[in-house]
Amino acid sequence: MAKKTAPGRKNVQLGDQKIIRGEGGETHQVAGGDVPVLTTQQGIPVADDQNSLKIGARGPTLLEDFHFREKMFHFDHERIPERVVHARGYGAHGFFEPYESCADVTRADALQRKGEKVPAFVRFSTVAGSKGSADLARDVRGFAVKLYTKEGNWDIVGNNMPVFFIQDAMKFPDFVHSAKEEPDRAFPQAATAHDNFWDFVSLNPEATHMMMWAMSDRAIPRSLRFMEGFGVHTFRLINARGKSTFVKFHWKPKLGLQSVVWNEALKINGADPDFHRRDLWDSIQSGAFPEWELGLQLFDDKFADKFEFDVLDPTKLIPEEDVPIRIVGRLVLDRCVDNFFAETEQVAFCTANVPPGVDFSNDPLLQGCNFSYLDTQIKRLGGPNFTYLPINAPKCPFHTLQQDGHMASINPKGRVNYEPNSWGGAQGGPRESPEKGHQSFLAEEGDTKQRVRSETFADHYSQARQFYLSQTEIEQNHIASAFTFELSKVQRVDIRAREVSHLLNVDDALGKKVAKNLGLKTLPKAAEPARPMVKTLKPSAALSIINNGPDSFKGRKVGAFVTDGVDTGLLKALKTALEKEGAMLKIIAPIVGGVKASDGSWIDADEKIDGGPSVVFDAVAILVSEAGAAMVANEATVRDFIADAFAHLKFIAHDKTAAPLLAKAGVVPDEGVIELKSAKDAAAFVKTCVKLRLWDREAKVKQF
Length: 704
Ligand code: HDE
Hints:
Blueprint: E1 12-14, E2 17-22, E3 25-30, H1 66-76, E4 89-98, E5 118-126, E6 141-149, E7 152-159, H2 172-179, H3 195-203, H4 208-214, E8 229-230, E9 235-238, E10 244-253, H5 262-271, H6 275-285, E11 291-299, H7 301-306, E12 326-336, H8 340-345, E13 358-360, H9 364-381, H10 462-469, H11 473-488, H12 493-506, H13 508-518, E14 557-562, H14 568-581, E15 584-589, E16 595-596, E17 602-603, E18 607-608, E19 619-623, H15 626-632, H16 636-647, E20 652-654, H17 659-664, E21 673-675, H18 681-689, H19 698-701
Parallel strand pairs: 14-15, 14-19, 15-18, 19-20, 20-21
Antiparallel strand pairs: 1-2, 2-3, 4-5, 4-12, 5-6, 6-7, 8-10, 9-10, 9-13, 10-11, 11-12, 16-17
The chain binds CIS-heme D hydroxychlorin gamma-spirolactone 17R, 18S (HDE).
């Protein structure tokens, strides 16, 4: 029946939709008309998605409205439990490509043929915060890689730090409870700066090494693209002859390491809580595909026996100087997900997912992980068939005899669901293969059953000290500040003091500095080490971020604040110089519509000034006309833009007319504040930006 327009209610055109207001309610027509018809999940075409079925226009809603009920029922069940840890994360697709065959050490198919790409999915995450928490929390970052190899899925579930807080999986629930929000008050969210966390770590000296990493700038990366990944645990690689080699996995970012400073992190969380995910999304969408190289740190029993620490102890690393890293391939992320929930939220990693040629060590943390991840997937994804979800399903043929269960979504044909069986041939179904199948290394274990921590795990301070001494002075200062900040949020003075007692073992000066900055009335005694420390470990340059920065400004962003009358030549020169370097220019203006440049052309803005603070950029430029500078002279957001860039040690380019704005923001000119006198200066400015920050300025802008 043709719809009549109800009296007084006109049909309206909204964008490409026409809303027809008839007696039976409203329907939307889309221009072109060839869009699919909306249906229910049963495939029934839907006539009206705007109004529920009622008796009359103002009467009660009817239970028979199956479309309404299905829509609401589905909505009510949209959420699944978030991950207990690593709830906040972001993923992307890509590939892994070997540079060489690693057949000498492993039969893993993914590492046999140079240049043969293996599809990959990577999920980065923070650990402590909930799904909706901010990206720049001080935290460890998860770096979980799923390789869809021809012999099944291989998950390298790593972090951006090579060691961990605890040595035995038994302590994981306690550790995580202490790190997350306190149970009575449900805060703080995504922050370890509270009593429970520091109580736990200070009662567990084994956490000391990891605490050095967690209080370093590694815990506040500038971008997921600029951080390393580590498999943490020692694994085994097994070659075709059954020979085992121990291995630690490393991911090295092609664009070098970079972090933010703490005050910047705090402000980014306000300005853009999605900073990391937006950065990853934007870079992939713009074709600047992030890339890491896979490094294998390979060693044998002989090395393991002579190394000062136990290679099974996840609170220890092996310095690159002791066992060099063999770079064997690259990981490129080149495709964003189509749907966050279907892919990033439902992806299920498990340390136990290893193909033939990869095996486990006895690291007691790894052994515990191998149980926990699968267990967690069943809870989160609702049943045993999550492996059939497209993001989790292997991309190679797979044949199991597992069957049924919630959401069984493949339809196995035939009579056979067990083996051995007598059916034979194709009918008989899949069979085991000692040649092709995963074979565990024939490790000899023989010992008594006992609940003990190995003596060889007992040195908790030597590597913490080595890490600290491997940092530049700037980074050491940041570590001291981070300990001070976090412990200042701890209310119990005895907990503050107990942590200082560990720091005194790491480095006497560090412990004393933190004690002084906390205002401890008496310096505690250094904690009694369970084992004599090794104080002769050589510093490792690989452990510093600043020593491993980028060699170009590629992948970085400059924010240029401009006003009407901006010098077109300068702006263009800056843009060209940045693009040549593989970096980007973003325009920030008083209004988002943009500005009229000196030559009368119109320049669109990417952000209005209060939506694009300088904290989200790697360097800034202030390019204004005289009239423009006068107009924004009293604008607090402009002042903050400049003052923050200066305080965060960024390089600042400006034209002559911007000088009064800089002075008003408290900028004291130094070699990081660069006047662009002409278009020629732009390229030199970009070259200077490769250093990322003018660290020498720090002592002038930060006392504590
Ligand atoms: Fe995890 N961890 N973990 N973890 N972990 C999880 O598994 C666990 C550990 C790591 O992006 C959970 O599917 C135990 C070390 C990453 O989906 C859970 C222990 C390392 C991710 C779990 C550890 C990690 C997780 C929660 C001590 C570095 C996110 C959701 C034995 C190698 C993966 C899930 C993703 C996630 C357990 C310690 C890395 C609860 C029991 C060490 C990157 O199963």
